[in-house]
């Protein structure tokens, strides 16, 4: 079996820690590619996605996408949108699953915007 990459080890470590402290709260899961950023609120007990937003949404669209991809402003917009959708679905408390991504830049901008829009984590 091949060794896990640093990213995969970090992702595994984060998810294991989340399972220990999450209780029954849904998780706000983040995925960041070079060009886009995605966020979903997932209820693991039911196996359902409660809310989702990304820079692929037409409302976010190309206004915040530059030549290098999604910016921190686009990530903040996605954070607001996912928080509004989760609140509309009745979810206010979540655990933040950053996956294997470091908490800075676009990931931090998304998290801060989601907090400001009403999600608690």
TrEMBL record:
Any Pfam family hit: Ribosomal_L18p
Gene Ontology cellular component terms for the protein in this record: ribosome
The entry's keywords: Ribonucleoprotein, Ribosomal protein, RNA-binding, rRNA-binding
Function: This is one of the proteins that bind and probably mediate the attachment of the 5S RNA into the large ribosomal subunit, where it forms part of the central protuberance.
UniProt cross-references to PANTHER family, sorted A to Z: 39S RIBOSOMAL PROTEIN L18, MITOCHONDRIAL, LARGE RIBOSOMAL SUBUNIT PROTEIN UL18M
Subunit field text: Part of the 50S ribosomal subunit; part of the 5S rRNA/L5/L18/L25 subcomplex. Contacts the 5S and 23S rRNAs.
HAMAP family: Ribosomal_uL18_B
The family this protein is said to belong to: Belongs to the universal ribosomal protein uL18 family.
Full protein name: Large ribosomal subunit protein uL18
Lineage start: Bacteria, Pseudomonadati, Pseudomonadota, Alphaproteobacteria, Sphingomonadales
